[in-house]
Amino acid sequence: ADMTHLQAGLSPETIEKARLELNENPDILHQDIQQVRDMIITRPDIGFLRTDDAFILRFLRARKFHQTEAFRLLAQYFQYRQLNLDMFKNFKADDPGIKRALTDGFPGVLENRDHCGRKILLLFAANWDQSRNSFIDILRAILLSLEVLIEDQELQINGFILIIDWSNFSFKQASKLTPSILKLAIEGLQ
């Protein structure tokens, strides 16, 4: 099957970048995707809620088309959601907690991309008002923002930059960042 429709809307430059930097080959995209899909039966403990071509392709791009690594990332993605169900309940921009975090700039998403075509997300840690936003809601807002942005194929190839400005971050604010909550954040972002 001709899989070029999976690259539809990409500029020639981006397609070339994907070839050079991510080992993306339009002629064998279908086989690459299918090889990842075939690994799903090895993890019956995980509910893979999406297995369509476009979705699996994201994970191949994220791991430069190493199928085993891409599958490991795909499995981690759904396992994280399975282990943290409450975080993904009503995982939409109109969820009150997420909406408040986004309104307060957690995260801010810059309009323009950087010179490498990457999308820039910005957080000013000192602006975190703990009486308004729980850390979990901020994390959910960041994850939802990434989830929406990653639909854009150019960004799947070019990537993201997350800038966190820690200046003027108070000890009182920091005391809320327990090791278990930081672990949750790092695993979710990975």
TrEMBL record:
Which biological process, per GO, is one annotated for this protein?
Answer: lysosome organization
Question: What organism does this protein naturally occur in?
Answer: Cariama cristata (Red-legged seriema)
Ranges where the CRAL/TRIO N-terminal domain occurs: 52-77
Tell me if Membrane is a UniProt keyword of this record: yes
**Pfam families, per database record:** CRAL_TRIO (PF00650), CRAL_TRIO_N (PF03765)
Tell me a GO cellular component: trans-Golgi network
- What is the name of this protein? Clavesin-1
- SMART domains xrefs: CRAL_TRIO_N
Membrane topology per the entry is: Peripheral membrane protein
Keyword list (alphabetical) reads:
Cytoplasmic vesicle, Endosome, Golgi apparatus, Lipid-binding, Membrane
- Single Gene Ontology MF annotation: phosphatidylinositol bisphosphate binding
Lipid metabolism as a keyword of this entry, yes or no, is no
- Primary localisation category: cytoplasm
